[in-house]
Amino acid sequence: MYWKSAGVIHTEKTVELALRKAEEYGIKSIVVASNSGKTAELFAGKVENVVCVTHANGFKEPGVHELAPEQRELLTGKNVRILTTTHVLSGAERGISRKFGGIYPVEIIANTLKIFGQGVKVTVEIAVMALDAGLIPFGEDIIAIGGTGKGADTAVVIRPAHAANILDTYIAEIICKP
């Protein structure tokens, strides 16, 4: 499914398509980018393993986390695992490029993935982050959900590799994207 536009207006249908594909393929893990926790909440209880990947602490403002404590509590109460860590496709490397200028290899990977859309870049990034954190099994296809700004507009079937081998990541299918 290719959306004519990007954004939150596609969240409900993206969730529906991802859940249908998970059932069709027997996929047990869904990793979803969700800073407010609202998109992750839509997957709670629908598959065996739901991982919510948030922005890192300090992403928008030093020392501040975007996921409200009450939403974190609600998600964990619904067995949604939450991952808050440095983003694998930016992190320290972005700090170096901001300080000294230029672009470095990890940022080249990120910008290359953005050719397919912001959401595709996000899905690869969060899948690798979840694998590195041990929240999804190695060597299995999962579904990763990302977006452009708020909500979700992109879903992929992906078999992530650890960050140390990120170029071995395999996108099996793009379920939907702008």
Automatic annotation (TrEMBL):
Listed A to Z, the keywords are: Kinase, Pyruvate, Transferase
User: Is Nucleotide-binding found in the keyword set?
Assistant: no
Residue intervals of the Pyruvate kinase C-terminal domain: 12-157
Q: Which Pfam families match?
A: PK_C
A molecular function (GO) held by this record is: kinase activity
Report what the protein is called: Pyruvate kinase, alpha/beta domain
Please tell me the species this chain comes from. Methylomusa anaerophila
